[in-house]
Amino acid sequence: MTATPNPRPADALRDGDVAQAAPASAGARRVGGIAGWVDDRTGAAKPVGYLMKKVFPDHWSFMLGEIAMYSMIICLLTGVFLTFWYIPSVGHVIYDGSYVPLRGVEMSEAYASTLNISFDIKGGLIIRQIHHWAALLFTVAIVVHMFRVFFTGAFRKPRELNWVIGSVLALLAIIEGFAGYSLPDDLLSGTGIRAMAGFVQTAPVIGTYLVYGIFGGPYPGEMIIPRLYSAHVLLLPALLVGLFTVHIALVALQKHTQFPGPGRTNDNVVGYPVMPVYAAKAGGFFFIVFGVIALISAVIQINPIWGYGPYDPSPVTAGSQPDWYMGFADGALRLLPGWLEFEFWGYTLSLNIALGALVLLPLVYFVLAIYPFVERLATKDEREHHLLERPRNAPVRTGIGMAGITAYSVTMFAAGNDIMAIRLGLSINDITWFFRIGFFVLPIIAFWVTKRTCLALQRRDRETVLHGRESGTIIRTPEGRFFERHETQLPEDQWILVQHEAKRPLEIEPEVDEHGVVRPAARKDRLRAALSRFYFADAVNPVTPAELAAAQHHGHEAEAIEPAESSQQIESAETAGRR
Amino acid sequence: MNALAARRRHPAAIAVLLILGLFLTGAVYTAVAPKPADATTAALPAQTVEEGKALFRANCASCHGLNAEGRATGTGDQIAGPPLAGVGAAAVDFQMGTGRMPMTAPAVQAPPDRDGIKFEQEEIDAIGAYIASLAPGPAVPSDEAVDPALGDPANGGNLFRVNCAMCHNFAGSGGALTRGKYAPEVRGVEGVHIYEAMQTGPQSMPVFSDENITPEDKRDIIAFLDTLDEETKPGGLTLGSLGPVTEGLFAWVFGLGLLVGCAVWLGSKAA
Q1: Which of A16, A62, A385, B240 has the fewest other C-beta atoms within 10 Å?
Q2: Cβ–Cβ gap A315/B165 under 8 Å
Q3: Residues 4-63 of B with CB under 8 A from A
């Protein structure tokens, strides 16, 4: 730096000074040295720096996916512990462990080792319970995370692919869960495997061959437990972790969506960087999730395998249900009428089972996975969306979602029809019929009610923007006239109510061109236009700036309880009432 | 009153009113609800058939007929009470000793009511003696036959899972049958009643004769159920031992509820 002779303000004298960095402490130098060493060899500084500076928006509902991620990690950690002691074998042993009521009973090594984990390995029972509770919460969190993504429209371009991956992950998670549920070889899990064998057998033509393939011979054989074990600890976790990595890498790549608000646009992300804020929050949340699951596992018993006893094909217990995430398939089986099993060309077709067990399971996840593309048909929307939609601003989507949840819930609750019958003192036959009819009727009601509710909420939003909030304060003017004061909103509150875009059904192109020739794509377009009308025909659109300006000009007339004569006075009173 | 009036538009007002209303309704109901009349007569020391017959005629005949021959309902299309010749003293002891009989109201099946037992044991024995006098039937088992300490719970567990669990659930928590009928919970039931139930097959339950399950095996089953009652609940609270349904419900309601609560709390924390 060369000093210039011109007189300058004092601050300008320090212009360009290089601040002397405080000498790094010995510890920091060592860390820096290690980081430099690693960076020299891997070039990791750049991508790590990119990730550390990544900004994530803040909202509690964005943590639902984190709950799923952490539960999965907890499952992986506790699962490793369980593999140290579990023996995936159906070799016969006579139990002589600590649990007295089963001493001397003949059982499989798988069951005996699970009993040992529960009663003779230090900390085994709590780890087993954490593993199981975390698995239940993993699947629960996946579902509610999916709700959040669906109802806020986060699956729209460019995130359709990640939605599909998420759907596959959800399906893999419940298969992984089922495989784990089957491993202890107690009466409950054995019943589950027996049921699974039956389901596979109902596949037309190839069913019996498939069962022989899966079980390595006739049911039950000795292969199924080791095979399920390989699937449960190797194949499925590898797929889950692999796909999950892609899932979360895509989130980082495409940036996280955010809720609309002042300053939040389609081109930015408003939030905190990973380092240090988000890392602390998310890292802390891991321990909260682990803590909550450990607390539940310490207090509440889950899957008391010692009570079920060893598996034996002849007995079965009342209350034999799968874990909740497979409940919808079980429930569908309970609802499907028996006449769906019939003979066709000399072969028995067990559609009463095949529809619920073999068709429904993949169908649910297929329908989920293709939804973004169905909606895209109706919108023909090619733009990228990084701002979330409030559920009310997409009434038909929200309605479809609620209808889907209702249909799913009906089949899921139907799986518990016997428990409901005894606990609520009802007839199991009545419950079954209620669900049978409800499966068709309740989703329609749910759709209609949800859609009308959304439209009503949108209208109220319009009303709030145009006329402010009814304060409940009645003002009497000196002349004796009454009116209610309406409070107008702060601009940032108003923004949330008006920021979304107007929607209207796609315009259908004329079916014949100007020469009277039928366009080849006319039929397809007609379908698309019909779908689009279904979505947007009665859309309530946000208040436009022009409408808002007009309302602010004339608003008071509508608010007066009696016809206004001296509008000047009212206006001044109203203005005084504004925040 | 002004403070109340000012808060009448508070968002929680409706909820508070509802809770208050429900509470008041419940409180008034418990205050004025009719109490069951206490009609227990003094204990009868003698267990004679004649006394049993008199008790039967006074308390049971309206449904079962004056001579226990059974009766149809007034319209004649349903059985009011089945004929009782040959059911034996064991059936009487089971039905009356668990509070199932006399039935307080018509229902798909007689519900157990341990707090509502209307008769002293001597009276039940007297009626049992009367019923047993009509035709031979199973007698009340001896104390030794139902002593859990003499049984083998491991064998009892195997037998229970093969013969009983499909209706009564693996832990004896009960299960549903068709059209509102059910297999009741068999936890905390006296051994003698369990024995009698197997012997006489009450309600929808099949009879497990001595050829089917020997008296020693029956005692083993009683011993197994006794160990379930005595067990220290490994792993924590049981959620009713009803299987995965209650576990799933718990995961959804309390597990998810707690975690979402934590997420909301953490989300509202400014960084």
Answers
A1: A16
A2: yes
A3: 9
